[in-house]
Structures are given as C-alpha cells and as structure tokens.
C-alpha cells in the first residue's frame, strides 16, 4: 500500500507543493487533516490546482485562524477529537500532509508526530537547502524515529546544496528523495515535469 505522510522542518517549506507533485505522480488521494487559516488558497485547493489527477479528500478540520492547529481550534471554539483524525479509508495511494513541522500541536496533548505514530505510515520530510537546514532536518527525523515512525526519506526544496543534503541523509541514514528547484512559473505542468526529473519516486515503492 502506497501511503505516506508529508511533513517538514517548518511551515512554508514546500510541503504542499511536494505533496501535490507526489499525489499527481501516484494518482493518489490527498488529505490535509487540519487546515488552519482559510484566507486565500487552502492547501487542499492548491493541491487540486497543481495535481489535476489527485483526489482531494475533505479536511477533518477547517479552522479560520492562521496559526498552530491547537490554538486555531481554541480561538474558533472547536474541539479536536481523535476520532475525526482517523486516517480516511481509500483504495489506492494516499498522501497525508501534516500542518507545520513535526512537533506542531493539534492539541496540547497531541503533537503532529504522535498523530503520525498512530497512523503508522512512513513519513517524508520536506526540507529547505539553505543554512540551518541540517539541524532542523535532523531534529525532525529524530522526533519521528523516536516515536517508531519509518522515515521514507528527505525531499529538498530550493537551490542545490550538496554538502548539506549529503550530510543530512548520511547522518540520519535515510534516502535522499531528490530536490525540487524553485519553479517559476509553478503550475501543474511545470510541477509534474520537475517532479519526474528531480524526485526519486522509485525509492518510495
Ligand atoms: N518548488 C517550488 N517552486 C516554487 N514555489 C514553491 C515551491 N515550493 C513551494 N513554493 C511556494 O512557497 C510557498 C510555501 O510552499 P508550501 O508548499 O505551501 O509550503 P508548506 O506546505 O510547507 O507550508 C508557496 O507560496 C508555494 O507556492
Ligand atoms: Mg502546506
């Protein structure tokens, strides 16, 4: 079964773009458990635009406030329930995109990585290539492996930085899934082409 969690070192690192590329490549269902912030394009809307062959599932939680899900839920007066965060049952591949980074709280007693551990799916860590990424990425991987989660690999976004990319994947002993360059324009066609050229989807099967 091809099912993955797409997480990352931080918010805005490129998880949604990577998840869209992966969902298109696998013709997968895409699920964002909790969307915090509904102004502008949501992650699910971005994936629908960038991955026309993906099936975008409805989010379990759509929260108005653009901040950590635990705080967005508090402000919105919403209770985050475990049952609503159960993995959707789908036939075929599934790509799940977490909010923010690996230790983002969905509730104060439920961090993203704890939720991932319940689902027990391999995690892909999306990381930038700029200075500071080695520590952030190794910390993220450590938080996942400490909870017993398999890490399917690291996918980098940005300019090529072979020293940092190599250090991360060798030290953590995880696959280097490739690096997506910054795309301009970024649309379904340029993303599909860049994904086919730069991302080792073969390492995920
Ligand atoms: N490879 C890329 N090429 C061009 N723009 C990108 C790329 N990856 C991310 N972006 C842009 O950077 C911003 C943050 O990316 P996003 O995927 O939404 O991050 P995250 O899901 O980690 O918060 C978005 O505006 C997105 O369009
Ligand atoms: Mg996102």
UniProtKB/TrEMBL annotation:
It comes from Erythrobacter westpacificensis. It is an enzyme of class 6 (ligase). The gene is bioD. Pathway: Cofactor biosynthesis; biotin biosynthesis; biotin from 7,8-diaminononanoate: step 1/2. ATP binds at residues 12-17, 43, 97-100, 181-183. The keyword Cytoplasm applies. Its cofactor is Mg(2+). This is ATP-dependent dethiobiotin synthetase BioD. Its main location: cytoplasm. Belongs to the dethiobiotin synthetase family.
């Amino acid at each position: 079964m091809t099912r993955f969690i797409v997480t990352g070192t931080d918010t805005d690192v490129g998880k949604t773009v990577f998840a869209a590329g992966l969902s298109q490549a696998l013709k997968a269902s895409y699920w964002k458990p909790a969307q915090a912030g509904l102004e502008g394009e949501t992650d699910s809307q971005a994936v629908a635009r960038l991955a026309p062959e993906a099936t975008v599932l409805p989010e379990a939680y759509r929260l108005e406030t653009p901040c950590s899900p635990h705080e967005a839920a508090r402000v919105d007066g919403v209770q985050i329930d475990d049952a609503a965060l159960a993995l959707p049952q789908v036939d075929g591949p599934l790509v799940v995109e977490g909010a923010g980074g690996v230790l983002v709280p969905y509730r104060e007693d439920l961090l993203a990585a704890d939720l991932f551990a319940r689902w027990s799916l391999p995690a892909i860590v999306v990381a930038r290539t700029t200075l500071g990424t080695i520590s952030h990425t190794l910390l993220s991987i450590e938080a996942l492996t400490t909870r017993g989660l398999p890490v399917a690999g690291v996918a980098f976004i940005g300019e090529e930085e072979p020293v940092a990319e190599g250090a991360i994947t060798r030290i953590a002993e995880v696959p280097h899934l490739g690096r997506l360059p910054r795309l301009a324009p970024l649309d379904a066609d340029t993303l599909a082409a860049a994904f086919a050229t730069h991302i080792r989807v073969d390492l995920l099967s």
